[in-house]
Design brief:
Elements (H helix, E strand, L loop, with lengths): L1 H25 L3 H28 L4 E2 L2 E2 H32 L6 H12 L6 H6 L1 E5 L2 E5 L8 H18 L7 E6 L16 E4 L4 E5 L9 H23 L8 H12 L21 H9 L5 H17 L2 H13 L2 H9 L3 H16 L1
Parallel strand pairs: 4-5, 5-7
Antiparallel strand pairs: 1-2, 3-4, 6-7
Helix pairs in contact: 1-3, 2-3, 6-7, 7-8, 8-10, 10-13, 11-12
């Protein structure tokens, strides 16, 4: 009976404190995670040593409702198990925070971990009811009510690929799911990804394009979105081939290159009211904050202008050169300075000058 009670208590403590650890570390950044993890580990290690001491000396003390010899055994099992689970909780938190550039809310961290570490496909329900067609390395999912939408990929895939190949060089194709969405209630409109016209989810290797009811698959805006999202996929795979961590590339440059691919390098004269410092557009969290405060998604246009300015002055090879140099320098800013002599401030100034010339 005592063994059953201790077994129940051991399982209860492990489950409860693992849950407490997980929730606690959702709110901590990397330095705080390391400090908190070290302190808790020392406490658990102290309990583990105490339980071993009790076991060796066969003391009949009561600690955390563990009594006698079996209590000491189960206390040692519980503390050792919690040390292991704590290690994985801290590791998962550090990996998630590091991958998201240390700027991520507890809710975003939880959603990312569920998406990344659990075998859950948030798009599975839609895929199960959709028509499918294989086009090169893409598996395209589309509504049976909007079969015309497949024309987008049939007509534009080769062009999208040639643009990305021109910008990043050749890569080895990887299977990718492409979902073509409409504006119907049963589409994926409830997803937070779809604030705009599309998304690329690198974790689930899925991209999506929204084709509004008032547009068709050949509409310039839809085609540009397809080029943009495909460039995100292609750039990620190009970085893998170059053995460069994607987190070393600022979000503004990633999005700027995708916009540049969307316009196929052409000069899109879109006015913007202000230029946000590129230092504030480095990571997903700060990008999302800027996007909320940016009318008409001007941060995308600003980032496009920066890439356009660089490509016009140094040629499109500068995009790939900056990526390769970032790998060598371990810093995008250093790579930019070495290859172009420009700083972020210089690019911001050039964008404002370009805007003045456009208005005049």
């Amino acid at each position: 009976m005592k063994i059953l009670l201790h077994s129940f208590l051991s399982i209860l403590y492990i489950v409860y404190f693992t849950g407490v650890f997980y929730v606690l570390f959702l709110f901590l950044n990397i330095p705080a995670s390391v400090i908190a993890g070290s302190v808790i580990t020392l406490l658990l290690l102290g309990l583990f040593i105490y339980s071993i001491y009790e076991l060796i000396n066969r003391k009949e003390r009561n600690l955390l409702f563990f009594k006698g010899l079996s209590g000491s055994i189960f206390l040692s099992i519980t503390t050792f198990s919690l040390i292991i689970t704590l290690f994985f909780v801290v590791l998962m938190n550090v990996m998630t925070t590091h991958f998201n550039y240390q700027n991520i809310s507890p809710r975003e961290k939880f959603e990312f971990q569920v998406n990344a570490f659990l075998p859950i496909d948030p798009y599975e329900e839609y895929k199960e009811t959709a028509e499918t067609k294989k086009i090169s390395h893409l598996t395209v999912y589309y509504s049976s009510l909007n079969k015309r939408d497949i024309q987008l990929v049939e007509d534009e895939f080769d062009h999208a690929r040639s643009i990305s190949t021109r910008l990043f060089g050749k890569i080895e194709d990887q299977p990718i799911d492409l979902i073509l969405l409409d504006e119907s209630p049963d589409s994926l409109q409830e997803l937070e990804y779809l604030d705009y016209m599309g998304f690329y989810d690198h974790v689930k290797e899925t991209m999506a394009i929204v084709i509004p009811d008032d547009l068709d698959a050949a509409s310039p805006l839809v085609v540009e979105t397809f080029y943009h999202e495909y460039a995100h996929y292609y750039m990620e795979k190009a970085l893998e081939k170059m053995e460069i961590e994607s987190l070393k590339i600022p979000i503004w440059f990633n999005e700027g290159v995708a916009e540049y691919a969307g316009y196929n390098g052409e000069d899109a004269k879109i006015p913007i009211d202000k230029v946000i410092p590129f230092d504030e557009l480095r990571n997903p969290g700060s990008w999302a904050n800027a996007l909320e405060d940016s009318p008409e998604a001007e941060v995308y246009t600003q980032s496009y202008y920066a890439v356009k300015i660089l490509a016009d002055e140094f040629g499109e090879d500068i995009i790939r050169d900056l990526l390769l140099e970032t790998g060598k320098q371990n810093s995008f800013e250093k790579a930019l300075k070495k290859k172009t002599k420009y700083t972020f401030k210089d690019l911001e100034k050039k964008i404002m000058e370009k805007q003045k010339r456009t208005r005049n």
